[in-house]
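Weekly structure sync, notes
Attendees: PL (lead), two postdocs, one rotation student
Agenda item 3: pending single-chain targets
PL asked that the sequence for the first pending target be pasted directly into the notes so everyone works from the same version. It is reproduced below exactly as submitted, 539 residues in total.
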Amino acid sequence: MTISLRRTPVPSVPLRVATALAATALALTGCTAGIDTEVSPTPDRPAPTPKPMDWKECGQGLDCATIMVPLEYSNPDGTQIPLAVTRHRATDPGRRIGSLLINPGGPGVLATETVASINAANPYSPAVVARFDVVGMDPRGVGKSGAVRCLTDEQRAEQAAENRDPRIPGGKPFDQLLADARTFTKGCLDHQSPEFLASLSTDNVARDLDQVRAALGEDKITFYGASYGTVVGPMYATLFPDRVRQMVIDAPMDTDLWQNDPLRLLDEVSRANEETLNAWFHTCRTESVQVCPFGNGDPEAALDALVTKLEATPLKVPPIKDLSPGGTLDGAVALEAVRAAAGNRALWPVLTAALLAAQQGNGAGLFFVASKVTVAPFGGPFATLQEAHNAVRCADWPKLGALSQHQAAAKKIAERGERLGSRAAYSALNCALWPVENKDRFTRELTGAGAPPILVVGGRVDPVTPYYWAQATAKRLKGAVLLTREGVGHTSYRSSGPCVDTAVDAVLIDGALPAGGTVCSAVPPGTTRPPAAGPQGPR
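Predicted structure, written out during the meeting:
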């Protein structure tokens, strides 16, 4: 059998940009509440113990390796596939606790790149990096682990350049969206085998993580997962509760919705997007016009007028050396930039400056945010991780073949009249035409029963994973404790101040959970004041 694992390069963001905008770049997608079904089929026999990792040094304090894992755990001695693993060695080896396995989200974010960024971007605290080997495995179908490819380079370029209308659900007429979905799903089969596509489910990712654990020689792992990583973590804790030392999940998906009702899940993500935009509007209005001059006290009307103007007369954006190739800023691209920046309070000043600049005919700021920061939960012209993202979702989700389901969901979103709703409509259409079936789809409730109590970190206003999902997750996971972060943002650790960081570090290092009901204020709290340099876009 030939298993196609053709690799797809993921466009990189310059380090200075990635460091400044890391929180938004991690806001990928995925997300989840109520059907207790039968236990999914489990492997007939355990997978063989993998060989120890053959590490090769690949940077300062970094090692890289490849692990071979079963394509199908129901046939553990059958076809094996390679997965990429990167380790950042503990900086205080004499006090090393063990291995901290991480999943930064998506589905589709490269865990290997997150680990490789530790020396520059500090995604984990110095105390954690001192005591743990931080280990990232690109999940099957992601990054260096056989990245899913469904479009040719030419098709990707066409998608990035296409004109979308924010007034139409999905941005295009339905027949065009359906044609796009047929092209996409056919391309997935052209580049990968059906067996590989069917294997990309989260339960297999959790089993792969356990193979990494065994290859590391660890009896138990410590785990930190963000966004989609909060599906991976509870899955691992449910399958292998006795192999969990400690676990933290940050910005949790509602795994019940993820497993059972993905169209409702996507509808609730759309509402969360709109809530963060409304938070930016509210802050802009309540701050003085000297602080937030966009709209002169009425930012909603100003944004609507700007989007209409850009749709009628798009702005040409020249290239910015090492940052942006340039392109066209129309209303749809502007709204995508607004969605991304409004969801990260650290980018609120950038958003204000970019909107003011666009009013004056300079679209560089908004175009930069849309093209370099956005890795969209729903896909779209700048969703650089769209292919892997779709493949994992379709492998995990129940069959969504009835087009009427998608049309009804899109109509519901459109009737709300929200500014960002268009991008959410028909966002699961690829799964309606998905060309393979995951016949042993895991449907058991993810409770983590038998694992140590898990810390759930939920943001009060989150653009991707609404706060009530964190509340539901904390109730579903046995013995879990909920830590609440006030303010706007997706994920909280290392982006919201010492209250959250101290609590997460205490769990990871010492297993000390905060008191139930603990609430942390957002640091920084959020302001719309433009940067002092002025609204000229990134330099």
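Discussion points:
- Residues 63-148+196-253+443-520 form a domain with the Rossmann fold fold (CATH 3.40.50.1820).
- The longest strand covers residues 62-70.
Action: rotation student to compare against the earlier draft before next sync.
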